[in-house]
Amino acid sequence: MCSLLGCSASASATRRVKMTTMMLLLVLLTTTIVRCDQQIALTEQLPTVMVAVLVRNKAHTLPYFFSYLEDLDYPKDRMSLWIRSDHNEDRSIEITKAWLKRTSALYHSVNFKYRSEQGKRESEKTSTHWNEERFSDVIRLKQEALQTARTMWADFIFFLDADVFLTNSNTLRKLIDRKLPIVAPMLVSDGLYSNFWCGMTSDYYYQRTDDYKKILNYDQVGQWPVPMVHTAVLVSLKIAQTRQLTFERKNLPAGRYDGPVDDIIIFAMSANYSGIPMHVCNELLYGYIMVPLEAGETVPGKDLEQLTNVLSYIVNEYGELKLKQDLSRFVSDAPKDKLSLSHIYMINLERRSERRTKMRKHFDLLGLDVEHFPAVDGKQLSDKKVHDMGIRFLPGYADPFHKRPMTMGEIGCFLSHHSIWERMVRLNQQEVLVLEDDIRFEPFFRRRAYGVLADARRIGGWDLIYFGRKRLQEEDEKWIDGSEYLVKAGYSYWTLGYVISLEGAKKLLREQPLGKLLPVDEYLPIMFDNHPNDSWASHFRDRTLNAWSAAPLLLYPTHYTGDEGYISDTEDSLRIDGTLPTIGGSKGGAGTVNNDTRDGAQVPASEPKKGDKEQLPNSPTLLAESGIGQGEHDLETKNRRSEL
To answer: Which stretches does UniProt call biased (Basic and acidic residues) (predicted)?
Structure first.
């Protein structure tokens, strides 16, 4: 019995062991299944990119170039830097070292080599002279960069010149997302120059085409196949055919190329022979580019002016400049003056601090010593205040566009200008530039302003000179005898900026306009006797103001009616009859203030914003001196020359 019981107990124990083992296996199996069933989000790393940069005499652009490069929204551990520099005559190497000292650890790798000896090549006439030796050096270095990227198994190589400012931090991501073998972000300069061609001649040089301006002006937007891109070029090395890309003439198919020794042309033809399309992308504003200097032009002269132009564009667009703190010590402040005038005033509402800040950045760039003149705020005016100030309105006045009375904003605007005229007389200021706070400066503003003022003083007899306005007459305006920069002003709107003499201020005050008030940009044309409304004009007897205008204009509005960010403190305010501006029905759509009056350009959708009504025929002499009037055909010799 005991043995039977023992056997039974033994069997029971065995069964318990088996059951326990099975349960453990089941637990383990269940655990394994749970782990397999878990949905783990797998993240694919972004492609690797090697950025190739050649630097020579770019001390003036490098602080901004590196600041914008550093701010690209792309993982730095997926980026490698390949930088070469030689034959410098400035602090380019010092600036590059300073930036790399802080940032090298952030990037996957950094390959920086340079020659410390100063000065140009013996074969170069100047530092902007491009001879065969210089071309050969650039070709050798770019080929080395391309081969380095291939050897390190980079997915992309991004050739980038050191005078490019990629203000759009998403540039690299956007270009990679295009999934194109060779693509360039379209870059904006202070003229017609950009980093692509739409045509190439049979001897491999720039060819003028209709499509170029359409792409440059964003009339057609997208990715466009072109025969040439340069200066900022992303190449996908994941595509097998890119193994055939080269900068060296000897690597091209035998007997096919008989063109110049030029890195960008050879590279473009290697893509062409390999069946690899090149594209330029203008879907976004990606950034800005400097126009290469010609032989004989200098960095302290032309290039610094161009840099000011481009930085001014950036301030217009973004309201600020990116400049890393450790690089700011390499940027000198521009010395300030008053353009040889007695004074410069900027009219600005105290509550518009953002405009004031933006304008001060422009003044810092341009070296302008400007006094902030607090504007009379229409929002602080009332019918009683206006009446108590002795202001009376011109009988029969109604806005020419909407047949409404004046707004409080327009009254405040007039009072602001009137106060400056009074101050001029009180302080005996002979010549004053009056600026409003919603303006953008045209390229080479300082040089052009000095030219206009020199002409005006030499000829004499002027009372007021428009720097910025809106022309309202279709007919041509007569040039001032003996000047290539000045015309006799016709009926115009806007007081964006004008120079006024002491005698001109006295003339405007003598008519006591506060007793027969109308908007200031109606008053001025009446006073220089070029206004279409004879009834209004008849209320002012001494209409002898001698008004001229700069041609081309030196100032334009920052925004036009319908633009994103457009604000009008004159139009968007109470009228003297107590009513508000009409809401809806404007081209801005329902719920927007209808501002299509003197504040808005009233430019039809098909008409460029800087159209014939706002811009006179170019003065050839001034434009030739400044470089801003170059036609597209002039770009043949400026296709780019900005590397080593």
So the answer is: 631-644
Q: pLDDT tens digits for 198-237?
A: 999 999 999 999 999 999 999 999 999 999 999 999 999 9
* Cα(63)–Cα(77) distance, integer angstroms: 22
DSSP structure class, residue 232: E
For the chain, how many residues are written?
644
User: Is residue 548 classed exposed, middle or buried when 0-12, 13-18 and 19+ CB atoms within 10 A define those classes?
Assistant: buried
How far apart are the C-alpha atoms of 567 and 201, rounded to whole Å?
47
Share the mean pLDDT of the chain: 85
* Domains in the chain, CATH or no CATH each: 49-302 (3.90.550.10), 333-557 (3.90.550)
Q: What is the mean pLDDT of residues 10-18?
A: 49
Compute CA distances 337 → 44, 343, 378, 581, whole Å. 55, 9, 32, 41
CA-to-CA distance for 327 and 315, rounded, in angstroms?
18
Q: CB-side exposure of 41: number of CA atoms within 13 Å? A: 2
pLDDT of residue 594: 31
d(Cα 497, Cα 347) in Å, to the nearest integer? Answer: 10
Residue 538, pLDDT above cutoff 80:
yes
pLDDT at 558: 86
> Given this model, what pLDDT does residue 570 score?
55
Strand pairing report for 156-160 and 49-55? parallel
Distance from C-alpha of 282 to C-alpha of 226, rounded to nearest angstrom: 12
Q: For residue 433, what are the β-bridge partners?
A: 344, 499
Kindly report the CA angle at 373 between 566 and 400, in degrees rounded to 5? 45
Residue of 611, 463, 447, 596 whose CA lies nearest to 524: 463
Q: Which two tokens stand for residue 385?
A: 């205040």
Residue range 294-321, pLDDT digits in tens:
877 888 888 999 999 999 999 999 999 9
Which residue, among 201, 187, 183, has the nearest Cα to 242 in the 3D structure? 183
- What is residue 576's predicted lDDT score, i.e. its pLDDT? 56
- How far is CA 35 from each of CA 25, 32, 287, 409, rounded to the nearest angstrom? 15, 5, 48, 70
- Which of the 8 DSSP states describes residue 608? -
Distance CA 220, CA 212 (A): 10
Strands 439-441 and 232-236: unpaired
Q: Contacts by 382-385 with C-beta closer than 8 Å and gap 24+?
A: 382/408, 383/576, 383/578
Q: Which helix (DSSP H) or strand (DSSP E) does residue 175 occupy?
A: helix 171-177
pLDDT > 90: what percent of the chain? Answer: 72
Instruction: Supply the pLDDT for residue 23.
Output: 53
The C-alpha atoms of residue 265 and residue 280 are separated, in whole angstroms, by 16
Contact 435, 554 (CB under 8 A): no
Angle between helices 520-527 and 502-510 (to 10 degrees): 100
Quote the CA–CA distance of 481 and 588 in Å, as a whole number: 43
Cα distance between residue 180 and residue 233, in whole Å: 11
User: DSSP state, 299?
Assistant: I
Please say whether the beta carbons of 435 and 441 come within 8 A.
no
- CA dist 597 and 617 (Å) reads 25
Distance of alpha carbon 270 from alpha carbon 248, whole angstroms: 9
Structure tokens given for 74: 């792309």
> Side chain identity at 35, as an amino acid letter?
R
The backbone region for 32, taken as left when phi is positive above 0, alpha when psi lies in -120 to 50, beta otherwise, is alpha
User: Which of helix, strand or coil describes residue 517?
Assistant: strand
Which is more confidently placed, 570 or 341?
341
Closest CA to 625 of 409, 455, 376, 434: 455
Instruction: Give the tokens for residue 470.
Output: 């809106």
Greatest alpha-carbon pair distance for the chain in Å reads 142
